[in-house]
Specification:
Helix content is 32%, strand content 21%. It is α/β, with parallel strands linked by helices.
Length: 331
Amino acid sequence: MRKMLLATVALAFGAAAYVGGAQTAEAKTFIAIGTGGPTGVYFVVGNAVCRMVHKEAAEGRSSGRQHGIRCSAPSTGGSTYNIGQISQGELEFGVAQSDWQYHAYEGDTPDKVAPFPKLRSVFSVHPEPYQIIASKDAPEIDSFMSLKGKRFNIGNPGSGQRGTTEVLMNLFGMGTGDFALATELTSTEQSNALCDGKIDAYGYTVGVPNAGVAVATDGCDARIINLDDEKIKSLVADTPYYAFATIPAGTYKTTTSDVTTFGVMATFVTSADVNEDVVYEVTRAVMENIDDFRSLHPAFANLDPQKMMKDGLSAPLHPGAARYYKEKGWM
């Protein structure tokens, strides 16, 4: 098993260590961030974090942070996969929905995500409304219950969208047998499958706007339906990590009026075992370059650092992140 957890590779001049919160240039610390599908916003989040970390790096330049951190953010299976890989030391950081952060830390749904009491928060990112995107050839789909007898993509195992879809299936007393076909396509595959007529609808938890959703809405006139009936209102009222969200008219070609749905937050998480200085430097890199970060995706446009340090976070803050926030006087 590849053990990447803060593996410090000593170069020819020998090993180096953190000194006063900075690492000497001779050593490199390699970190990996779990993201999601390559067309999703999680992938952008992870690579945006890496971009900020590398921007801050001083090695080879006359100014900057001599932290020695090098970062990669590969495409992965999503929220619960990322948490699981962090718990096993295969990833240092990951992006995860706020609900799966909650369940992993609390350990209350072990059949969905492995209990992980060492899970720690770093910051939250963008809101993530759960969306059901329906084919133009299935105009009768106007609620979750109307998916009965339809070909519906429930999402790949380990993804946040699969988890939220299963929450709704339980809420409405439905199982996979209630669909004419329950596929397990990834976020990369589902829009093309919808446009090709292989499925009637899919569920997707993702920031807005999203290029993958646009493939379906702008490419083959699919539409996003409202999810605001009484059962869903009760679900949101009873669940601390859910909130209603609005997808504004004009977001996509077929979004001719505001769509009401509910959702979670995308959160950036790590393990208590990850070095405090590394988490501090990663947090600092993002927050000190927040304008650049915001510019990398429309979903990031309204990010507020003082909200990012608390919104959607149920696991305790990692001490490295907390150190930065305290230095800024935010806590």
